[in-house]
Structures are given as structure tokens and as C-alpha cells.
Amino acid sequence: MMCAAVCKFFGGDASTIIAHPVVLALNEAAMIGFNGDFVHMMVKNINQLQHNKGDTGLVPLEIRYKLHLCALIACCHSVSHKNGSGVNIVN
Questions:
Q1: Is residue 35 in some structural domain?
Q2: According to the model, what pLDDT value does residue 19 have?
Q3: Is 25 inside a domain boundary?
Q4: In this structure, is residue 88 part of a structural domain?
Q5: Per-residue confidence in pLDDT tens, the chain, 91 aa
Q6: Strands (E), 4-90
């Protein structure tokens, strides 16, 4: 579900999105569920995201991706409060 949500937000298909830095960082942080894990992230959690970049090891997630994740979380919170329920980003 998490990969599908990131795929929808960042564009691309499932075969290429698996290697996206955001997906790698969320997997490294054990964020596998969208409604259970991701929407409960705070800015400090996003700032701590890292991903494995080949021979260099763990590197911090680029600021542009951090800002995209903050925007996605803010949007999901806004829509869920407006609807009075959860958000289905995949549909």
C-alpha cells in the first residue's frame, strides 16, 4: 500500500518506484503502512529519514523529497478532517 501511495504521488510505475529515494528511506524507517504508519509521521521523523545509497551507505533524504512528504501528509490530514474519515490516496 505504501509503495502504491508513493507511486501515485511521485508518478512512475511500481517497477521503477521501488528504487526511488523516498521508498528506500521509508523502507529503511520501517514505514510500510500508509494509514497505520505514514500519516502519523511528524516533521522530526521526516527530517531523520535516510536511505542506502550504494557504496556510500546511509545518506539523508534530499530536502526536496522531505518537502514533498510534508506536503503529502498535510494534504492527507486536511482531507481526512474535511471528510471526517481516512484518506484513500490510491484511488
A1: yes
A2: 83
A3: yes
A4: no
A5: 566 777 777 777 777 778 888 888 888 888 766 666 676 677 888 899 999 888 889 999 999 999 988 888 887 777 777 877 666 665 5
A6: 50-52, 58-60
Q: Return d(Cα 81, Cα 91) in angstroms, integer.
A: 18
Expressed as residue numbers, the domain containing 28 is 2-83
| pLDDT value of residue 35 | 62
- Sign of the dihedral defined by the CA atoms of residues 37, 40, 45, 47, in that order: positive
Provide the H-helix boundaries in 1-91.
2-10, 14-17, 21-28, 43-47, 63-83
Residue length of the chain: 91
Distances (CA, A) of 16 to 13, 21, 51: 6, 11, 16
Asked if residue 60 lies in contact with residue 50, where contact means CB atoms within 8 angstroms, the answer is yes
> Domain count of the chain?
1
